[in-house]
Amino acid sequence: MDQESERQRQSLGQMRKIKIVLVLTCAYLAAEVVGGLLTGSLALIADAGHMLADVGALALSLFAISYARRPPTPKRTYGFYRMEILASLVNSVVLVLFSAYILYEAYQRIFEPPAIQSPLMIAVAAVGLAVNFGGMKLLGGGSGHSHHHHAPDGRVHRSDEGGRGEHKKKKEENLNIEAARLEVFSDALGSIGVIAAGLVMLTTNFYLADPIVSIGLALFILPRTWSLIKKSIHILMEGVPSNISYEAVKKAILEVRGVTGIFELHIWSITSGMNALSAHVAVIDPGRSQIILREITAILEKRFGIDRSTIQIESYHPEPGSI
User: In this structure, are residues 243 and 167 in contact, taking their beta carbons and an 8 Å threshold?
Assistant: First the structure.
């Protein structure tokens, strides 16, 4: 099986879906901005702002996926996978800043809520709800990464895909697609909130409902967006993946027959769903190095979903405190 071709096929499928959602979102964004200005509704403007964030997120997603498909270079030996994480971080920060702006504007309107043209506001939000559901349906099927094999070169071994590791990997969320889907989902809830506010104002003339819904929209998305920011920063800082236990990996390697020690153990994510490991492993019998190496990489792939490993076999232990 040509795994690199499969990865490219999945990337092209993602790009096609994102392009469709981007066109739909741009079209509705224009309609919602006009509707917000005509009705005077801050809730519609807030929803339009989320749509604008969606446009930026989707455009950045296309940019990131396109870069991720580029082959590695002598200067960027891992390729361009980190573009996905950078784009996710930018998307999230923009959405946090816009939410803060909406909170400020809503606070101003609480004291002097303006009259709103509720029927037009409801109609525009209803169209937006349909667009949001269509976008969520297209973006709903996230898929993991597939990665190619790196051949060994003596002391270093690059692992291939395999078994349960591949299954775990396909369950990993692509952070960039998750960010885009989160924003589309928030827009759907936003449209529902705008429709509800419009109905309240239409039947009771309680125009304070508009800034209240705007505040609710901003507060709803902030915790989820902050979670994405933390995930992105954790990967950029090369932290241990949240679904992998450092101590469990270390224990599993030490349990391999013939292994007497492990040091310089590092576990990190290159991008979401692509985990890597490097370590020095001390063995009793250097003649069994290749057998031990194969057993360790099989454990890493099948039990922990670590599909890129660099293991250096040593015949000695380091001095205490040199880890």
Answer: no
Residues contacting residue 146 through CB under 8 Å, at least 6 positions apart = 3, 4, 6, 7, 10, 161, 166, 169
Kindly report which listed range (119-123, 138-142, 256-260) carries the lowest average pLDDT score.
138-142
In this prediction, residue 176 carries a pLDDT of 58
Selection from 2-11, 12-21, 197-206 with the highest mean pLDDT: 197-206
Angle at 108 between CA 225 and CA 25, to 5 degrees: 45
Residue 240 is given by DSSP the state P
Whether pLDDT at 226 is above 60:
yes
Burial environment of residue 260 by CB neighbours within 10 A (0 to 12, 13 to 18, 19 or more): middle
pTM above 0.90, yes or no: no
**Amino acid found at 92:** S
C-alpha closest to that of 308 among 76, 147, 164: 147
Q: Find the Cα–Cα–Cα–Cα dihedral 157, 163, 168, 173, rounded to 10°.
A: 80
If phi over 0 gives left and psi between -120 and 50 gives alpha, with beta otherwise, what is residue 244? beta
pLDDT of residue 219: 84
In CATH terms, 246-314 corresponds, of 3.90.79.10, 3.30.70.1350, 3.90.1510.10, 3.40.190.10, to: 3.30.70.1350
